[in-house]
Input
Amino acid sequence: MNMLSLYLNIAFAAYFAAMIFYFANLFFKNKAISYLARLSIILGVLTLTIYIALRGLAAGRPPLSNMFESLVVFALAIGLTGIFIDLKYNLKNINALVSLMGLLSLGAASLLDKEIVPLMPALKSNWLTIHVLTCFVGYASLTVGFVTSLVLVFSKRSSEQLDTISYKMIAFGFLFLTLGIITGAVWANSAWGTYWSWDPKETWSLITWIVYAIYLHMRLRAGWRGKKAAWLSVIGFLAMLFTYFGVNYLLSGLHSYAS
Amino acid sequence: MIKQTKIWKFFSSIKLAIWLLAIIAIFSLIGTFIPQGQEPAEYTSHYGSSAYNLLNITGLTHVYSSWWFILSLALLTLNLSVCLINRFSLKPILLGTMISHFSVLLIFAGALVGMFFGEKGYVQIKEGESISSFISENKKVDLGFTLRLDDFIYEEEISPKEKLLIYSHEDNKLLKEVAVSLGKEISFGEGYKVKIMRFIPDFSMDLTTKEVVSRSSEPRNPAIEIELKDREGNAKTFWVFANFPDMHSVQTDFRFVYQWGMRRPKDFISKVTVLKGAEEVAKKDIKVNFPLKFNGYSFFQSSYDRENLSWSGLQINKDPGVSVVYTGFLLLLLGLSIIFYVNPLVRRKK
Output
């Protein structure tokens, strides 16, 4: 158990260091700093992966069953997306905020109970892994899309590169959000005999999906770019946050075990 | 060529689609903040009776089947259909759009098939008894076969905190921690042996027969029966209670403490047999996530008798629309993938 916590603590420190280095890189254009930032986020992602794998081994089941475990997976997915942004676009300014989001997710996780408990019967299914992973790949991508949009909303100059990146992140996130909803529906049908029951979590995922569907239509059909589109992405992210946290803590339903 | 009347133009507009999507999202949102489909008493105690009347008349107690919600979905379907017909094209660049929008219509169509041709019901079967029909929307449906519940099993996950602690009476020293598993003999002290014989979640004694029974399957008064053997092999059996740590029926040199840890459900299993006439056709364990599928019907583990574990509640379902909906799901993913990842390549080539 102590060994496990060690990896989580290293990951926490690595995400924190990544955030500091990426922020520093905004002010001092220095090759060493940007390498350190990249190194830190990679270290964070590696240690989180080890942590999740060891926790899964200790639990004898996929470690994806409650709010604590999902927050750790969320942080991992955000970190991975951050590495992608850094390597593919060689872009650092966004990553200061991306690593902050990962850090917030780990910070929230640290406030929760880490105890490993056995899976409840409703979650004993192969769909658990595929459903949770597709959802969190989607969530992470939409989060990076949000961070990018936030920069667009608050910056004076418009940036075509940021605009394109936020669109690409949202498109990918939307595809995985769709996949997440679909795997959830198929799982629900195989466990309860109904693929849709207007449970608050389902309904909020649909609301989130609709907001992003509107974003895509406005962008692809009405030509919205820059700040206008960015605002829609911010609204979509708020809906996503409510789907993830609000439903668990404020509303009750089939997903109540997730809190 | 379709005549571009005013109404046609109205329903082919993207603006309408955006507004309808926004309206559907807002309607859906309302339904998550007002509890749906509850008993009238629950609403009146929560909101008051006049507010309940208002909620009931407006349909806010059943948003997702209210006329205004259905209407907004119907309008979106019409809008989507008109848009699809209007923009219908076999150009490769529009393929993704065509597929993804068509898939949404297909999902709606599958849902309608399920609504009109699906059957859904719930049965409670006592152990040893069987059913051959169920009630779906106030109509009796004959299964065409018989389902017998042979046994219902509720398995629990014993928390590592749940233990039997053995202290010495003299100096109150902890001698042994024993995990709660039945029938295992454990040595402790100098030549002593202890065995946990039975677990009773809600201990009670029948005063006339003096027999130990469990009043329910809820852990209201958890107790374990222990057999203690000394060096010479003389055995004593007695009960130890989690809620009453100092109540032993027998004097020994030790103090036994039954430390309770909350147990969690591990599995709910309905052992069933499918019969056609008198012939046994199939045997199966129905578990959560593992339904029985037979002749187009699916049986899902859905509830159980919390008091005596004497019956099992099964959800019965037949939905011929599912395959249509799933086809829609696949096409939606295909369409989106084409729009996001194939179209840019096609454009780049030009």
In short: The longest strand of chain B covers residues 139-157. Chain B has seven helices and 17 strands.
